[in-house]
Design goal:
Helices cover 49% and strands 12% of the residues. It contains 19 helices and twelve strands. Bound molecules: 1,3-dihydroxyacetonephosphate and iron/sulfur cluster.
Length: 399
Amino acid sequence: MENEVKKNNGADQEDKENHEKEKINGKTHVQGQVREYKPLLEKERVEYAREIFRSKGYAEKWKKLSPLFLKAKQEKDLNIKEIQEEIIKLKKEKEALILAHNYMLPEIQEIADFVGDSLELAIKAAESPHQLIVFCGVHFMAEGVKVVSPEKTVLLPRLEAGCFMADMINISALRKFKEKYPGRPVVCYINTDAEVKAESDICCTSANAVSIVKSVNSPEVLFIPDRNLGLYVQRFTNQRIIPWDGWCNVHHRFKPEDIIRLREKHPDVIVVVHPECSPEVIDLADEVFSTGGMVKFAKESPHKKIAFATEEGLVERIRRENPDKQILSVGSPKTCVNMKSIRIQDVLESLKELKYKIEVPEEIIEKARIPLIRMLEISRGKEFTRKIFERHQLPNIKT
Ligand code: 13P
Ligand code: SF4
């Protein structure tokens, strides 16, 4: 991994000064105080976002997804039990493993072999001996599974299930970013396409982002694509984090006022937010967790009234699993239309017709697997990755 940090031009100096103003170490911020954070890369953000949205047909995609989501809601009168039984039968016959992200519809979570956050799902898929995986989540997650286990058949029940944040950076934008800040290692959030991972040094998820960045032996790192997660990590390290200006259109919509109002009504509430929320929201929270961390916290915490700022499907799951606690949503419930575009009947079709197969070009797999395995090595240890290497006959990685 390249560690040498070269001096750069005036624009870089300006970013550095902004960064010094914004930097907050650890917990030194004042709880309850609303701060204003100025975007570091405002010009680039607008420019790249426009370019990427256009090239990905983003507006069209949005139009297509919204009715799908509504349809999924209307189709509640389908015989869900019958469909679930058929899925379970087929799953056995085909020896398939069904993985579901925490944001999936409840009827999908019920038939899954495992439900979890993006890191937990990546680990489950890597450990599993199953050759057929039906991945109920979004495209970059299924692609990540294919990259780590290229010999497996990985199915995504709906190809439209993408991620708006992952679409905010592509290979040419990343190359320009690296040219602007040469010599800095790239830490890429798992919410990226395989092509982008292939140009990055190490991957992270929201569950391990702080330890992954700290593991990188460099005083400055580029962090893509989520600016909010990058700024969150900045609180815990003296390394300079230079974030890309992407965001999640679910988590970025939570506002400080949502928490202020909630606390006025429920002074005894504990507020838990996802690190994809804005820094202003994070400042007002009691706890910050990945989706898997939220599930664990809700179970283990002695608090009886907990509010979550995350996708509503997860809040519903936590509510179901903790009937003795009052589980609230921060502000109005927010939904990821990408995740919710997968319906139970799509999972059945996927298993029946073995669709849609995730394909990634071999040369991308070779490069993209390196940052993913580096991450798994830090999260799970060398012994874990060595086992996967042996079973999947992966080449050794030089770091
Ligand atoms: P987790 O890693 O917490 O599952 O988050 C993935 C994601 O896309 C959250 O919006
Ligand atoms: Fe992407 Fe946000 Fe949906 Fe997560 S919630 S999959 S980051 S759009």
